[in-house]
Amino acid sequence: MAQSHGNCYCSVPQCSNNKKNFPYLSFHDFPADAEIRARWVTAIRRDEGPNFKILRGSTYVCSQHFSSEETYVSASGRKKLKKGAVPSKFPWNDWGKGTGEQSERRARKRLAADNEMPVPGSSTEDWSHLEAVQSDHDYSCHPSPGKMDRAARKIQQLEVQILTLEHKIQQLTLKNQEPLIYKFCVTDEDYRYYTRFSSKKVFTLFWESVNPSASRLIYWSKAQRAAEVTASPQRKLELIDELFMFLCRVAAGLQERTLSSLFEVSVSTVSRIILTWTSYLYQVLGSLPSWMSREQVQATMPDKFRLYCPQLRVIIDCTEIRCETATSLSLQSETFSSYKNHTTFKGLIGVAPCGVITFVSTLYTGCISDIEITKKSQLLQLLQPGDEVMADKGFLIEKMLSEVGVKLIIPPLKKATQLSKPDTQKTQAIARLRILVERAIRRVKEYHIWDGIVPLSMVGSVNQLWAICCLMSNYQGPLDIKGDKPV
336-337 and 312-322: which strand pairing? Predict the structure, then answer.
């Protein structure tokens, strides 16, 4: 609607028209239709904000910015706009005389006239002279209006395109970002080196079994601070990579500083993740029924055991791991092992005839005897009358076992200068069968976290790590009597 008040001013930038100075112009309110109103705002290049607000009866656009086809004179003689009219004539588009090639040609003509050069025709030579003029001191020349308009639109299009591409790149990065374990472990040999699992298939089965409960893990440091179970903090690594980090520390023996660089996290984060997974796997693996019933032992017993010891339930042996020497003299004497001539931790391991580790005791100080560790480990509570236990000749626990109705099978003690033929055959048979527990212990010690001396700083978690290594070694498959091969 056109206004004729004397205080009408045009709101288009670079336009100072008002009704008092230009009474022949008509001034038009912004339309009420939201879509057309938005087109007006875009056309005049002036967004609403603190310095510009569109108000009915006080914000106008003069008729100079509309083409003649968009206006008409009413019966009362007033100039009005046609329905859907949008302002299109502005200083920045040469007052609507054309954008694109026409506007550029007019600009070239003006530029040629200013530089006293002939207007370029269709020949290549004429254009080349003009290009030379344009390229020389172009900073002193005003760009063509059409080119500025096209450049502004092109910039907007490129900005939208950049945002779209950045969003697509982010989505593809998140979608295609695979866990670090799949970059290091490609073959079954890689899985054996980094995780001690026999193959990718076995590792995948283990991961699928622990993943549902592992997704609710609470970090160790947070669990200490919180009295109640709360939501786990946001993880810096994929959950499967946290397990891979733990296995790299325990199985491959990589140090925490190395893991920090490898996984691009801080050393404190590495320590927190390892402690968390140590507690978690100890609870998970410890809750599984590892002790085999008499029926299960009989069903999986190899023929050689049936021949020499048909009621055998478990083969036991002790092993020691070296630890750091304490400064306290009393602790030194408790942990010192005369067998290893070093301070050690000592544990008892039991293996079923089929080669599976079924019993793991707590680690004790190195000075403890085989008799005492057998008594404290509570192995006797698991045995039943009629069972047989195979051990080395140093295990003088026959009386202890007989009290619960269990028979001890050990190599015969040498009482004469030479063993009799039956004793020799029995000794050889027991040695061939008892080697199974030694191979199982070797498997456990192949976890490279036990390669060096265990620092005293690990005392709080050494029992958990030892039990985890013993139980996880079962995932490598049971041992055969003839060699280190799965049955």
Answer: unpaired
Local structure of residue 441 (DSSP, 8 states):
H
CA distance 350 to 314: 6
CA dist 441 and 447 (Å) reads: 11
Q: How far apart are the first and last CA of the chain?
A: 95
Q: Which residues of 304-316 are buried (b: 16+ CB within 10 A; e: fewer)?
A: ebeeebebbbbbb
Per-state percent for the chain, helix, strand, coil, to nearest 5: 50, 10, 40
Helix 188-195 vs helix 200-214: angle between axes, to the nearest 10 degrees?
50
Angle CA 282–465–237, to nearest 5? 75
Q: What is the pLDDT of residues 10-21, one digit of tens each?
A: 999 888 888 888
In the predicted structure, residue 264 carries a pLDDT above the cut 60:
yes
**pTM confidence score:** 0.62
User: Hey, is 9 helix, strand or coil?
Assistant: strand
458: burial class by Cβ within 10 Å (0-12, 13-18, 19+)? middle
Confidence of residue 350 (pLDDT cuts 50, 70, 90): very high
Please check whether residue 146 is in contact with residue 99, taking contact to mean a CB–CB distance below 8 angstroms.
yes
Q: Which residues contact 377 (CB under 8 A, 6 or more apart)?
A: 348, 359, 361, 362
Backbone angles phi, psi at 307, to 5 degrees: -70, -40
According to the 3-state scheme, what is the secondary structure of 75-96?
CCCCEEECCCCCCCCCHHHHHH
User: Which tokens sit at 236?
Assistant: 């810096």
CB atoms within 10 A of CB 386: 11
**Which residue type does 392 have?**
D
pLDDT band at 106 (very low <50, low <70, confident <90, very high): low
Q: How confident is the model at residue 376 (pLDDT cuts 50, 70, 90)?
A: very high
Are 337 and 344 in contact, with CB atoms under 8 Å apart? Answer: yes
Which of 71-80, 168-177, 358-367 bottoms out in mean pLDDT, i.e. has the lowest? 168-177
Computed from CA positions of residues 40, 43, 47, 51, in that sequence, does the dihedral angle turn out positive or negative?
negative
Q: Side chain identity at 382, as an amino acid letter?
A: L
| Averaged pLDDT of the chain | 82
**Which residues contact residue 441 at a Cβ distance below 8 angstroms, ignoring those fewer than 6 apart?**
317, 319, 349
User: If DSSP codes are grouped into helix, strand and coil, which group holds residue 228?
Assistant: coil
Give the alpha-carbon dihedral of 73, 74, 78, 79, to 10 degrees. -40
Instruction: Name residues whose C-beta falls within 8 Å of residue 266's C-beta, 6 or more positions apart in sequence.
Output: 260
User: ∠332-338-339 over CA atoms, to 5°?
Assistant: 130
Identify the burial level of 319 via C-beta atoms within 10 angstroms of its C-beta, where 0-12 means exposed, 13-18 middle and 19 or more buried: buried
Whether residue 274 has pLDDT greater than 90: yes
Please report, as a single letter, which amino acid is at residue 40: W
Spatial distance between the Cα atoms of 210 and 316, rounded to a whole number of angstroms:
29
